Amino acid sequence: AQKVTQAQTEISVVEKEDVTLDCVYETRDTTYYLFWYKQPPSGELVFLIRRNSFDEQNEISGRYSWNFQKSTSSFNFTITASQVVDSAVYFCALSEATGGFKTIFGAGTRLFVKA
Amino acid sequence: KAGVTQTPRYLIKTRGQQVTLSCSPISGHRSVSWYQQTPGQGLQFLFEYFSETQRNKGNFPGRFSGRQFSNSRSEMNVSTLELGDSALYLCASSLVASGNTGELFFGEGSRLTVL
């Protein structure tokens, strides 16, 4: 069965601090896809990144970076030099190739960035 | 390009009534998924449709149903409403034709309040 755990419920940082959001997943499939989504206060979920299980390369996009480690079943997300606009709820998600076209989400981590 | 459109955005119903929510996916997207979002349970998968066929269903009672039309628009229906059905119902569309590789594009949601 597929499962996504985001142990951090809320994180509060001061602007310009770096922050890492943790995500641990469980799956029996060898082929699967991991995602991060952002839900700002306005409410609409926005896709940030997708990784497949065969690509463990870390990725950097501006102030965002992702660390995918199959050995620890983790897909962590780091925001460098956080900004107030980064305040949102961040969701990690998992989709299995044989999972029947279903993406499941972690509980989310609420990030507060204070000026 | 228009995003995912959900209607109505807000609605109030009383226990025992039924409700129908509508979702228009992004043009060209044939997969539509529905999620229920509540503070306590987070994002829970309801069902996914592709080419008018339900390919997967989450762990919800039979009171929750859905369908997809030939133009990929989708509706979900909740009958005999209960207080616990109060939630934000999110629709998401995806471009993929098969497999689980695609990211989800979400609408703003329909916020249902059951009194």
Helix content of chain B: under 10%
Beta content of chain B comes to over 45%
End-to-end separation of chain A in angstroms reads 41 Å
Which two chains form the greatest contact, residue counts included? A-B, 25 and 24 residues
Order of helices and strands of chain A: EEEEEEEEEEEE
Strand-residue proportion of chain A: over 45%
Helical fraction of chain A: under 10%
Characterize the biggest β-sheet of chain B.
7 strands, mixed
Provide a count of the helices of chain A. Answer: 0
Secondary-structure class of chain A? mainly beta
What do the pLDDT scores of chain B average to?
A: 92
Low-confidence sequence ranges of chain B: none
Radius of gyration of chain B, in Å, reads 13 Å
Stretches with pLDDT under 50, minimum 5 residues of chain A: none
Radius of gyration of chain A: 14 Å
Tell how many strands the DSSP assignment of chain A holds. 12
The overall pLDDT of chain A, averaged over residues, is 92
Give the terminus-to-terminus CA distance of chain B.
37 Å
Order of helices and strands of chain B: EEEEEEEEEEE
Describe, in short, the structure shown.
The complex is a heterodimer of chains A (115) and B (115). Helices cover 0% and strands 54% of the residues of chain A. Chain A has strands at 3-5, 10-14, 19-21, 24-26, 32-39, 46-52, 59-61, 64-69, 74-79, 88-96, 103-105, 109-114.
